[in-house]
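Hi, here's the filled form for the chain we discussed.

Project: internal
Contact: R.S.
Residues: 487
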Amino acid sequence: MNNRQRKNSKSLPPITSDKGFNYIDNSLCLCGESLATEGYSSRRELLKIGGLSLFGFFSANAAGLFPLGQVQGGTSKEKNKKKSNRCIWIFLQGGASHIDLWDPKPMAPQEVRGPFRTIQTALQGGIRFTEILPFTASIADQITVIRSMRHSFTNHIAGTYIAHTGSTNQPDADREAASEDFPGPGPLLNMLAPSSKHIPSSVAIPNWLSIPGPSNRMPGQYGGFIGSTYDSFLISGDPNQKNYNPPSLKIPGELTNSRIAKRVSLRNQLEDLSRGLDQANRQRQNQFTQAALSLVTDPKIREAVELEREPQSVRDRYGRTKIGQSLLLARRLLEAGIRMVSYNDFNQHWDTHGDLKKRYQHIVPELDRAYSALIEDLKQRGLIESTLVVNMGEFGRTPTVNGGAGRDHWPFAYSAVLAGGGIKQGLVYGSSDSRGAQVATQPVSPADLLATFWHLMGIDPTSEIKDRNDRPYLLSTGKPIEAILQS
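And the returned structure, exactly as it came back:
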């Protein structure tokens, strides 16, 4: 984590309605009336349903590995500005090219401007996107594009970590998530703003951020030093698949809600295992166990994942793709009471070192359709003013096209796109130079973007959180980007 973070040291028809540490698997285990009944020979054979692990929490806390996260309100006096109640966080893992999407350079040499022409957006002043973003260009008057993001980490994993935490205290290298990592926004929201609906505040879809091999568990998305108890609940599986039924929400046919509730009495038997924990820890774990159980059994959540309930026209507007149906699912989950849904692309989906034109002609239209549909859908449903939508990756791509007709990693200037609650509409903030190589005006760090996120979610970014050794850290070392906030 950053040492400073430690406090002390195009258009379509409108939508109409008709861890160095190996973390224990995130699972809520609901087994029989005793550990020995029903023939389970090991913990891994116990029935697992979604989100939180009773065994993981008790065993880890007994060993002193996971702390109870704490927060103390910051002292800064924030202006009375519009806030968001919810967030959809879209992470384009692998690093989307700012020059070939949001920040084109049509007057630059061919090797800089790349393979795509540009088109006019709905914004005044000649603001242009590339031709492969026609749907988003048509709603550009509803979003803010930050063209001046920057940091110094060229590694995917390090870039992902700083994007989610703001922390610069890390190697620029491959690694696994660790228990001492600074927590990601989802887990922190679970800790700082527990849902009043008795379900987790934060969920992730349709998979964890991961690069099989160098980082099966990418840091920045987990609980880190506040503990895996606070990890976002993963609703896995491709929602575009026929008969989509997320494994984490499956309940075996023989288990009724009442029988599940009875089996949760297992916790009483586990209390002996938790004698080394203080009462506050036990109460907190009980809250998160109940939150996971409620998520699995809540009829609104069950209905939210049943995408066939949506009119076919709506599903088609989002696109019959993984990202399209995932963002539709995200909207439905927000309506069911979830506060934050993270959409995670998988395995460097946007990492295009070669043949960028062919690759982008495939993946960008899917994003363009899905993202623009989401913004329009939220607006038509009256949700946009209370829902922040973040769309970004860990860095951009090199200003010069390489010998393989692709672009390489480039964190020194890139773009992020924001929309929704508390964000000004129709704004381009900051700029990169004529080649898209360096930030020219109004630089924004990942920490600043995170501070803006926390401010809009109604949590003071100068608040303290504490690790397992009771050491205080600032929630964010950045500052909210005042110029993009609605007054």
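Let me know if anything looks off before we file it.
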